[in-house]
Amino acid sequence: MLKISGVRTFYGHIEALKGVDIDVEEGEIVTLIGANGAGKSTLLMSICGTPQARHGSIVFEGKDITRKPTYEIMRLGIAQSPEGRRIFPRMSVLENLRMGGITTDPKHFDEDLERVFQIFPRLRERQQQRGGTLSGGEQQMLAIARALMSRPRLLLLDEPSLGLAPLIVKQIFQIIREINQQQRVTVFLVEQNANHALKLAHRGYVMVNGKITLSGTGRELLSNAEVRSAYLEGH
Predict the structure, then answer these.
(1) Is the distance from CB of 35 to CB of 209 less than 8 angstroms?
(2) pLDDT of 85-115, one tens digit each?
(3) For residue range 121-172, what is the model confidence (pLDDT) as tens digits?
(4) What is the CATH number of the domain that holds 21?
(5) Do 141 and 159 sit in the same domain of this protein?
(6) For the chain, which terminus, N or C, has the lower number of CB atoms within 10 Å?
């Protein structure tokens, strides 16, 4: 579904991604783990076209999207829930969800709204409440729900557990599993919480300083001594 080949992305003269190769097959949950500043979020942003990769290629469902503008990429069936949630705080929950569905046919709105309310019943209760007054966990739910309103085939999730209490983190990861299994949405997950991410993912990659250093199934990476030392034992 998604093939990233030799991608190099720059901020000015600084090379943030140094020849990244990643594959995501349809129906999978694939996770990318790594330390803060490794380049994980930059890769997600490069998939979405901002910033564009300077070298290499990004192919989605057979279409080269490396040089396409962000709005065209989104219309192909990719949606992102960004790091830090970035909901519209002064808009209501319902208005945020309307913004998520802006690229789809309006005739599907009620159906799509009911679908996300079934996944996130808390949002149904809060639909007239301003986004900025929600709890951190509810805002994360809203960010994911807003992305789902565009009917994506590939969902990009950037640090969904960031700043959340452990109980809420567990709930968010369970919801991601349900979205993948029940809604048949392929998920590419960037996450610092390696333990939760690798338990959830079919496959995973490890990024260090803009390069992929390890890959394997979630189970393989969980048992890898190098991964355990760097990401799973208090480091």
Answers:
(1) no
(2) 789 999 999 999 999 988 888 888 999 999 9
(3) 999 999 999 999 999 999 999 999 999 999 999 999 999 998 889 999 999 9
(4) 3.40.50.300
(5) no
(6) C
**22-36 pLDDT tens trace:** 999 999 999 999 988
Q: Answer yes or no: is 82 within a domain.
A: no
Is 180 buried (19+), middle (13-18) or exposed (0-12) by CB count in 10 A? buried
> Which domain covers residue 126, as residue numbers?
87-150
Q: In this structure, what token pair is assigned to residue 45?
A: 């942003």
Answer yes or no: is pLDDT of 234 > 60: no
Q: Residue 76 is encoded by which pair of tokens?
A: 């192909």
Contact, 231 vs 194, CB < 8 A? Answer: yes
Distance CA 74, CA 146 (A): 13
Note the maximum CA span of the chain. 51
Q: Are residues 95 and 68 in the same domain?
A: no
Same domain, 145 and 163: no
Q: Are residues 107 and 23 in the same domain?
A: no
Say yes or no: 21 and 117 in one domain. no
Residues 6+ apart with CB under 8 A from 119: 145, 148, 175, 178, 179, 183
